[in-house]
Amino acid sequence: MTTTPYDLDRANRYFRDRIAFTTGVHELEVMLESGKAADTFQIVDVRYPGDFAVSRVPGAINLPKPKWRNPETILGGDKNRTLFLYCYNQTCHLAAEAAIALTAAGYKVVEVEGGFAAWEANGYRQEKGDAESASAA
């Protein structure tokens, strides 16, 4: 915690923004189960390819850190879909770092709080298998 004076206005803006740009694993599961049109969103796993290959959120594509500079190689040029980003767990900042890079590139993003650990802890279904076949071309 910083020793600078507490800025109530800044804190208020932060928490309002946090609500607008984050979601939980339960909300993501509800979206998947509802059959919401896949052309409106894409789930993006920013973990390392080896971890993605073992297990992931169904329908997720892998966008590891080395790909953030040229995300269109994986995501394509469609910037109308909202990207739901997740990483390892609540203390992992990869999804937040990816969100910074992707919003700078013009993509709409929402961070999934708790990451894959929260998804797994809730017992939600997972895809397993080869990362290459699950990544977008």
Low-confidence blocks of residues: none
User: Which strand order spans the largest sheet, edge to edge or round the barrel?
Assistant: 1-5-4-2-3
Sheet/helix structural class: alpha/beta
Q: How much helicity do the residues have?
A: 40-55%
Please characterize this protein's 3D structure.
This protein has helices at 8-21, 25-34, 49-54, 72-75, 94-104, 115-121, 131-134, and strands spanning 22-23, 41-45, 61-62, 82-86, 108-112. The N and C termini lie far apart (42 Å). By secondary structure, the protein is of the alpha/beta class. The protein has one domain: Oxidized Rhodanese, domain 1 (3-Layer(aba) Sandwich).
At a glance:
The protein is an alpha/beta fold and 137 residues long.
